[in-house]
Design a protein that fits this description.
- The complex is a heterodimer of chains A (about 260) and B (about 280).
- Chain A has one domain: MetI-like fold (Orthogonal Bundle), CATH 1.10.3720.
- Chain A is built from twelve helices and no strands.
- Chain A has helices at about 5-30, 50-55, 60-90, 95-100, 105-110, 110-125, 130-155, 160-170, 175-200, 205-210, 220-230, 230-255.
- In chain A, helix 3 runs antiparallel to helix 9 and helix 8 (about 160-170) packs antiparallel against helix 9 (about 175-200).
- The longest helix of chain B is centred in the N-terminal third of the chain and has 34 residues, at about 65-100.
- Classes of the chains: A mainly alpha (about 260), B mainly alpha (about 280).
- The interface between A and B is large, with 91 and 93 residues.
């Protein structure tokens, strides 16, 4: 191994500074959830008081449970129908395919403020209204493009001749999908599912417009509390959320190595 | 190319329908409904006495407040995008061209990880850091011999800091992918012919990674133009933006047709930006 040059050292220090900028506020926030002062005063006195209070906070616990099961439902729906769509887009050539691929772009590119308020207007109009069904409808639509793109990326490494071989040996199309294609893309499907979970679990804007006020998801409840004035209890729940969502994404990127050299 | 057989067509249709019906029901029909709403005098489920009107769009131009706030939001987008590019591109360069092996992948992952974590919580963390007598102020005063009052919280600067923190990983991600794809031999050839680093940057690295850089910039500019939560938490009274006015129409004032018209004006601006950027973006794979 050769020593990094002078410019290499400068580069490393620079990346270090960027990482400091990205992580320092999160660490400060987490630290303050273990600090005794209600008004975030230093010096630091360690306490678990805020986590203890959190465990008795009915409103936040119910919102957390709701967020979790909405994320699980979103993951199941988005992964199932998204994987099906990705396989069909990969396997078949047909007119209008490019239009279908382009239709995946708006949910990602249009600001969530616009998507969220449009959903609110439409769901009210057709009688779905606000509430958990509306939130799930919205979350799945936002998660679908991610699932399709991630699974499609994995499919690109798949040799379509394997399908043809299986079919020529007499396997039915469903059998081909189940026994040949799915095992190959399994890691992509799992990564897609983790993305879908993260999109839903961390989603604030769309949930904010679609959730019933007394029946909201965790980020919406946190937003409302922050605006009323906050206590370290919010730091405690925020710390838990950030640990969960980082763990989910760490696992997702281990399987879907975007950026890293693709195997 | 058409389908090989009719059953193929049926199968493809069967596999695609659920996903695209869902997208239609939750994205495309709502956007159409919103366009329809923006041209009504009142929401149909509020008042049966509604008619078509252009008054909601006229309202945008009749009050200078709305164009002013749209300009303010777009200005905020421009500042945040520029800062993210200035900070993020060199970072992507170091990762893609200077660091090799396993540490590169680990560092890259560390940088994009926060991006995928909860954005609301990350904005909240800045509220803890920036608040008066907060962590940053105490830390600075512990180092400096004279008292400093930052009063950054509830200012435009605070919104900019929070948004740069939120979106910085985007530009690192897209620039990194583009920079990493550049053939090493191109840079080697230029270097062996005596080109200084500045020439290599301007003539090789920047032009070849431009699609990635522009993709990152667009992916930052567009959502920032529609941001409201960041401004509400970090901006306080300084936090009135185009996005917060739209939010108000839907959750506080309940003038949905006006909100719809304001949203569509923003959407039109977004489409113009995407249209202008699309020739460059098409080259990004």
């Amino acid at each position: 191994m050769n020593m990094p040059s002078a410019s290499g050292v400068v580069g490393r220090v620079y990346v270090g500074l960027v990482l400091f900028f990205l992580y320092a506020p999160i660490l400060v926030m987490a630290l303050m959830s273990f600090n005794a002062s209600e008004f975030y005063q230093l010096p630091f006195h360690f306490t678990l008081e805020w986590y203890r209070r959190l465990s008795g906070n009915e409103q936040i616990l119910r919102a957390a449970a709701r967020s979790l099961w909405i994320a699980v439902a979103t993951t199941i729906f988005a992964t199932t129908i998204g994987t099906m769509a990705a396989i069909a887009l990969f396997r078949y050539e047909f007119p209008g395919k490019r239009v279908l691929q382009a239709m995946l772009f708006p949910p990602i590119a249009i600001p969530w403020l616009i998507t969220g308020t449009s959903m609110l207007v439409f769901f009210f109009w057709v009688g779905i209204g606000r509430g958990t069904p509306a939130v799930i409808l919205g979350h799945v639509a936002l998660a679908l493009p991610y699932v399709i793109v991630v699974v499609a990326a994995r499919l690109e490494t798949f040799d379509i001749q394997l399908e043809e071989a299986a079919r020529s040996l007499g396997a039915s199309p469903w059998r081909v999908t189940w026994a040949v294609t799915l095992p190959w893309i399994a890691s992509g499907v799992v990564a897609g599912a983790l993305f879908a979970f993260a999109v839903s679990f961390d989603q604030f804007v769309v949930s904010y417009f679609l959730a019933q006020p007394g029946d909201a998801t965790l980020p919406v409840v946190i937003y409302t509390s922050i605006r009323k004035g906050f206590t370290p209890e919010i730091n405690a729940i925020s710390t838990i959320i950030i640990v969960i969502s980082m763990a989910v994404m760490l696992e997702a990127s281990r399987r879907f190595r975007f950026g890293g050299e693709q195997r | 190319m058409a389908f090989a057989t009719r059953t193929d067509a049926a199968r493809a249709g069967g596999m695609l329908t659920p996903a695209y019906v869902w997208l239609a029901a939750a994205i495309f029909l709502p956007l159409s409904a919103m366009l329809f709403f923006s041209m009504l005098s009142a929401a149909p489920f509020v008042s049966s006495d509604w008619r078509f009107t252009t008054a909601n769009y006229a309202a945008f131009f009749s009050r200078s407040l709305y164009p002013y706030l749209l300009a303010r939001s777009l200005g905020l987008s421009a500042i945040v995008t520029a800062l993210c590019v200035l900070i993020g591109y060199p970072c992507a360069y170091v990762l893609a061209r200077q660091i090799r092996g396993r540490s590169r992948e680990a560092l890259f992952l560390l940088i994009i990880l926060p991006f995928w974590s909860n954005s609301l919580v990350r904005i909240f963390s800045w509220a803890i850091v920036l608040r008066g007598n907060g962590f940053l102020e105490v830390a600075i005063n512990a180092v400096l011999p004279f008292p400093v009052s930052l009063s950054l919280m509830f200012s435009f600067t605070a919104i900019v800091i929070g948004l740069v923190h939120s979106y910085l990983p985007y530009v690192v991600l897209t620039s990194y992918l583009a920079l990493q794809a550049i053939d090493d031999s191109l840079v080697e050839a230029a270097r062996s012919l005596g080109a200084p680093f500045r020439t290599i940057l301007w003539r090789i690295l920047l032009p070849l990674s431009l699609p990635g850089l522009v993709a990152g910039a667009v992916l930052i500019f567009v959502p920032v133009a529609g941001s409201f939560m960041e401004a509400r938490i970090l901006g306080g009274r300084a936090g009135t933006l185009y996005g917060t006015v739209i939010e108000d129409q839907f959750v506080a004032v309940f003038n949905w047709p006006l909100g719809a018209a304001l949203s569509f004006i923003l959407l039109a601006v977004v489409f113009v930006i995407l249209g202008v950027a699309s020739p460059v973006l098409r080259r990004a794979r």
